[in-house]
Amino acid sequence: MGSKRVGQTQTINRKMIWTIGGGKGGSGKSFITANIGICLSKLGVRVVLIDADLGGANLHTFLGVSPPALSLPDFIKKRVSHLREVLIPTGIPNLQLLTGAQDLLNAADAKSVQKRKLVRSIQSLDSDTILVDLGAGNSLSVLDFFLMSDGGILVVTPEPTSIENTYRFLKSAFYRRLKQSVSSSSVKALIDGAMDRKNEMGIQNPHDLIKAARRMDEGDADRIIEEVETFHPNLILNQVRSKKDIEIGFSIRSACLKYFGIHLHYLGYVVYDQDVNNSIRRRRPLVLENSRSRAAQCVMEIASKLANHH
Amino acid sequence: MKGIKDQTYYEILEVSPTATAKEIQRAYEHAKETFHTDSLAVYSLFSEEEVKEIQSVIEEAYRVLMDETLRKSYDQSHFQTVGGQPLEKPYEAQGVSKEQKASLSFTGLLFNPEEGLSRGKTLKQVRERMGVELPTISEETRISIKILEWIEEEAFEKLPALVYLKGFLKSYAQSLGLDPQKVIEEYIRLMGESKKK
To answer: pTM of this prediction?
Structure first.
């Protein structure tokens, strides 16, 4: 988020903010966030994990930490003066936790000024990487956080419902990004209309949208194209059971290229592994409990890719 | 970004204009899998008509790019070389070539999807389209030409024991850029069916 332009454009920053979202509840976002965070911290990266899951914030459970006494609202309501005072130690070197961010996403009065202020406070934290667990929601606040981050990561399982929800999330994020980039109110209205496939304007896909936008405003059409070209969300496929499942990740990538014109980055996959369930039940992170398990190896591989962004 | 109709065959298959036959074969299989009617990755994003349209462009792209002569004339109509770098033709020129594309009708050269890619004769077709002779495959895989011929002819009674055959199929599939596991499974299944008959 240190770059001038907001959102999803890979820039060489000192600090990277990754958001993990999309899919549906149970696709493994919190598991992946917690375990990637631990892997990064083991690589010497200073990490802060932020729990912003509206559906059920329990990132602390994945880390084996008790429900924290201090959380983000304590900072927002000025009970503490600096955000770092509400960071929870996890017992793991280089790894801290911030909970309660969902309250801000949930609040109807969470104005963009307030959100940006929070982002600035987050940026000022003494860390190298920040991982935000957004949960499965796709409210405007969630979408904005996803778009404002340096890298948005979608966690999806190879099941129709999970893929459907991920596409729904991606579509919402995509059109919101486009809408934020254009200036003409008629093009903004066009983008709103395009989200509904049964729209009267006959816009079936982003390509049709660009054609229609060009008829209204050349400059806005160019801006849309630029946004499409610079939007690079990431994908992690979780709970894969076969080679065919792994291939679905590549197919999603190709489908996104054909439909949205965006280059989705397939970060990697995590195999289905009973050890994952066992570790969650014991409230012991997999990469610490059973680092040799197949799923842990997959997570480590993904974490090392994220570490290379520093 | 371009709509499906405006994309070059290389863009449709997501390969570079300098892709080898092996790369095109691999890309085609991936594209076919991705835009398969039952594919989880597309049904909630594209309408049925859009999927059908993409499927037919994929087949057309494959047919043209795997045929040396057709590919050359396609390249000539779509790219012009400036300083050795292939460039896209200006918009007006693309309009002309689109008409040419439309005249390229479906021919019997395409594979029957029901048959899969692992029949002996389809392996042979893939190899021939890539312009590779059996001796080259034999040299690359160290499988005797005779055995490669028997595989292609589906001369099941002459083929070696299953354990060896699997190894041969794996090497042969890899040399053609095909998914070895799929080729082995389907070929063995075909053998089983033939025995039952």
So the answer is: 0.77
